[in-house]
Amino acid sequence: MRIGLLNLAHHHVISYIANLRALPGVELIGAADADQARCQHVAQTYGMTAFPSYDALLAARPDGVIVCAENTRHRALVEMAAAAGVAVLCEKPLATTLEDGRAMIDACRRAGVSLMTAFPMRFSAPLLELKALLDRGGLGQVVACNGTNQGQMPQQHAAWFVDPALSGGGALMDHIVHLADVLRWLLQSEVVEVYAQTNRIMHAASVTVETGGLVMLTFANGVFASIDCSWSKPLNYPTWGGLALEMIGTRVWSALMPFDKILISTTSAAATTPGVFGAQTRIKRWWPNSFTHCVHSARPPSAAKMATGRCKSPSRHTHQRSTDSRSGCRSQTGDHDATFAHFTTHNRLCGILPLFLPAPG
Q: Could you tell me the pTM of the whole model?
């Protein structure tokens, strides 16, 4: 299995290099980047080939590529790989507009190649345990969820994260996708209403994108959820941030902290012993491993399926209403493409597109 890297803008590329090399039967053939200086630096640092162009890497006939470009530059590289008949694992968010996302999926569908988005939380041991608990009715009826995916402002990793022309936005674009994906997967239901508030209270003097955000979601099954996606951790915080999810059911309340490898479930009577799971580095290894397995076996990626193993089709245009203002914005729609884009490999979009959010500030 031969894998290449298309563009090295995202700092996750370092993890991809390490984990691809740890997978048996996988060869990292090298990288290509429009920024030749960056490509040469990374190639020399990590001992791999720096191809002179994207075309040159694709001409080396890799089985798959991982796209680690700036968010708004994903489309061109995915389409290029698809035209070469090469499977793609693309960093999140898949796209910053519905037009780009649909074009990428159409290109991969026409070429008959797989397209996978980096949603590593589905490979988290405590999250899988929570999914099993939920599927066997252990929580009772889920009523509400509270999610946080907070972090440092990522400008220190790469300046493009706070350049809207390259990132497509700030904290909303960066930190909604994982919990949005997890919630749809856990609840087996689609979002029918979105309400969002954004601000730039933090780092207002240094960036123009939103740095704080709170998104309220209402699902078709009646469950409501919140996602705090803010870049609210100090720049000197000892880690990048974290992800947490609380699920309130009629029988059990559960709290999930996947990066701390912890799942806690409790009833009104007593708390259970927190479950502590194995090395979290397995998350980072398993989603590249899942991608290479999909390429080898010509099957759809795991993250493209609902828990039943079937891809759900979005309901089509029944009604739509939206309002937009500086302070907040609400959307109700029967066409889920207008609020959340659907994720599958061949015919739907991966991730969340916050199309109804107000301008930062």
A: 0.77
